[in-house]
């Protein structure tokens, strides 16, 4: 007989398995109905185990507390009578009458992490009931081929028929009730090694990217999905404004990878589809593709040949190449230094070496290389960086011409190189290929702002916000559109609302401060500038202009000198803005001409930059606009 008997509703089996496995890993023998084979004496086996167990864990869920949870409630009653009852909740529910006197231990949203305080509380309760030292865990029992509660309810013939049909066919919803919006939360890392967390998060990101390529699906962006990783499905769905949540876990060992995935109805908290995969480590890519296809089908997206091709577009079939790609992405997303960026680029080089046809890897390296050059390269190194970035993007284009990230990489190259016309073409193509990608929409919003079409830019930013509602960057694009449209009062109000929403004083601080300067409210502007580091280029620029507009030209010059010392030629656009505000047009145009010569990306805002307004009636400004070759807004 076993130490622990686990009682649960059959449909919750996949959700209960992490608890069983965790208890087994901690040395307890656990009985649950996966251990019953087709020839067992069903009622006798259940009753014998229930009566002998030193501890009975009852998993209360939305299913088990309802009318259909009679078996669970009967087993809970027997456990109470024997004083071995340990209730846990895997959904936010009120326990049935008669079971509320014992405090239930919450496991809602728990995915199997044995160090989690919620599991530790359950473990302590089990130890109190079992007493003594737990036995060493035995090998896992064979999986059941039938459901004992289905047998008890309708006979063994019915249960065998259920097993023959397969769980997916039974769980797949009808198209009438399906909704095409989903958030893919980061998958839990159950490998026992915290350094492997990047891989479980990366598996979720790969599935998210695949789903986002399928027309008809609304897929929440990475930043917002990661922000709700610890919320239960209903809370996450409410925060993100979606109907469905995909969550899961990854457990790795040298010989096996287990990926568990669960698609949950965000309104009811009930499963719409779930699956466990136990495969060799090299099969992780096939698992991701299968999950993406099943989720898309469950959400009633038309998964024809074109959609199936989109799921794996630009990817790799080499698991080592994908592991390196995922690791590079994790480092790049959290990069705080030049060394971080260099490490990410090195990992992408290794991924490409392993799979020279990995289009996503080429595209990501191109994108990162442009950003790296803009942040760290000097005027001599920058052209070399950009030539290599263009080569990488064109290589990706030759492999996967219909991959949105390839065209986004090309847009990033061309816009950084001040080739505005080609940049516009590439951005439009990226938008066509991935209309539901929040990062693409952010880029579209910012570029549309630079063209002078504020209303369209705000509309694009609002679309990005819907797709990634907890990503501050989406809101920042909307704020920038207000600022460059010279809607300063609105910008100040919206920026302060953003800071309250995200509890970040730095968020949008420079657009707010610059707006206040142009409104003549210098005291408030200074307070906003003070929220960021003193050496930040936008702060130095804004403070210089603030003092100049207030008549303190000497302090303005000091800020300009500090800016030049800190950033050199890289701040040429800012020099032009400050000289324009000083009224020194010759120096302003000299600085802007230098910008164009070194391809300073700051010139992207030339058409709309309010700090350059004193120059707009000069013929030299019109000539510079013509050289930039902006497309029509």
Describe this structure in words.
The protein is of the alpha/beta class and about 625 residues long. Among the domains are: about 5-135 and about 145-165, Rossmann fold (3-Layer(aba) Sandwich); about 170-310, Rossmann fold (3-Layer(aba) Sandwich); about 315-435, Tetratricopeptide repeat domain (Serine Threonine Protein Phosphatase 5, Tetratricopeptide repeat), CATH 1.25.40. The protein has 29 helices and eleven strands. The strands form two sheets. Strands 6, 7, 8, 9, 10 and 11 form a six-stranded mixed β-sheet that branches. The protein has a five-stranded parallel β-sheet with strand order 2-1-3-4-5. The longest helix has 19 residues, at about 380-400. The N and C termini lie far apart (about 75 Å).
Give the name of the CATH superfamily of one domain.
Toll/interleukin-1 receptor homology (TIR) domain
From the 3D structure, determine the CATH topology of one domain: Rossmann fold
Using the CA coordinates, give the radius of gyration: 29 Å
Give the class-level CATH name of one domain: Alpha Beta
Query: Helical region count?
Result: 29
Largest sheet: 6 strands, mixed
Distance between the termini: 75 Å
The assigned structural class equals: alpha/beta
State the low-pLDDT regions, or none. 136-178
Tell me the total number of β-strands.
Answer: 11
In terms of topology, how is this protein built?
Blueprint: E1 4-7, H1 13-25, E2 30-31, H2 42-52, E3 55-60, H3 70-82, E4 85-89, E5 105-106, H4 117-130, H5 148-154, H6 156-165, H7 167-171, E6 181-184, E7 188-189, H8 197-212, E8 218-219, H9 222-227, H10 233-240, E9 244-252, E10 257-265, E11 271-279, H11 284-298, H12 305-311, H13 319-333, H14 338-354, H15 359-376, H16 381-399, H17 404-416, H18 420-433, H19 438-450, H20 454-467, H21 472-484, H22 488-502, H23 509-518, H24 522-529, H25 537-549, H26 553-567, H27 572-582, H28 585-598, H29 619-628
Parallel strand pairs: 1-2, 1-3, 3-4, 4-5, 6-8, 6-9, 7-9
Antiparallel strand pairs: 9-10, 10-11
Helix pairs in contact: 5-6, 8-11, 8-13, 13-14, 14-15, 15-16, 15-17, 16-17, 17-18, 18-19, 19-20, 19-21, 20-21, 21-22, 22-23, 23-24, 23-25, 24-25, 25-26, 25-27, 27-28, 28-29
